[in-house]
Amino acid sequence: MPSRRCLSPTFWLGFAAAVAGAVQAATPTVRPETVGLSTARLARVTELMQRNIAAGTFSGSVTLIARNGRVAMLTAQGVMDIESKTPMRTDAVFRIMSMTKPVIAVSLLMLAEEGKLRLTDPVGQFIPALQTLTVTVPNTEGVVPSSPAFTASAPQPGRVVPADRPVMIRDLLSHTSGLMSGGASSTYPFAVGSGETLAQALPRLATIPLDFQPGTRWAYSPQYGFDVLAHVVEVASGMPLDKFVEQRIFAPLGMKDTFFYRDGVQARKPTLYQRVNGALQKVADQPWMNGAYFSGGGGLSSTAEDYLRFALMLASNGELDGARILSRRSVELMTSVFAPDTLPGRNAGEGFGLGVRVVSNPAARNTWLSQGSFGWSGAYNTHFFVDPKEKIIGIFMTQVTLLETRGQLRDDFENAVTQAVVGN
Which of 252, 258, 271, 347 is the most buried (most CB within 10 A)? Predict the structure, then answer.
């Protein structure tokens, strides 16, 4: 892997391609110094991505950095497809996976503002099958299951008991529900059938115990927690989820390339890869990405420029270019700490709000980001953050799944962006 001080000819070819990609971008860029950023220091962001491309971590990337509402960097590096060597383009459409979750959180807050739901409402109020749930708990009492032969048997590692209370909307938004969050629930089979909708599939979750009593800890629900919330949006609004987000969020914000399913964009979609034995191998799309099942946990596709519009709306207290999506107080609530870093399962210095992580203590988190910064990431190695104090938004998008180092890359990206701040 080339070092920063002795970069290979391949790096400089990639850097030149990145600069060319920025020139072709639809979003106008400004000279970084006009928004208090250093051009020379921002080059470290490009270097970071190029080193990972050269190392075979992913095939290509798009990075976008904005400050004070203006884009200081928009670059495309590497290729969209290794076989065809198609250059990455700044308007590439990425499967953003869990970066869908903040969109669902905004949708719910919009409906809460309209009085159509409360954050404390039980999800069973909207999906009756999920009103009364069970929980897998440690078998501390050594309870032995009944045996038809009346023979002794060993105590079980866990047992199922009724939930102490219903799961609330805020539990799912803050990942404190225990619903399909990687514990004992992962041993239960659950899959979305071909052509099934949210309404058809989600009631079957009632047969799967929660991983812990609601509200007692934090554990990430990768997909189904927010799929449940997506259907809550449908029930509360009386609209299919794809229509709701298009009419209420994407169209007003000018997000023309963000959607759950659309024909005719394949040429702009980078190939999805997975690292296997040190090499990138193609991976097929999820079967539920079919236009019938609108996954709130990870179903959206978008571009860096489109997602910037969404992030700018949040950074601007709920309004962008005259389109008011949320009130200022709703954005403040969304980015407040609902799950503190003292709750079991959370990382030091990092709380969780409604659909987004929140930096509660930069020193404890070992980050250059300011206190109150927020954002989230996607399973296919996409990421965004908003630093309200420094008025910076950073976005990167790649398409590689199950990347073990994606947390490290996320931190390196945040640090590379914020170290470029030299003025106001």
Answer: 258
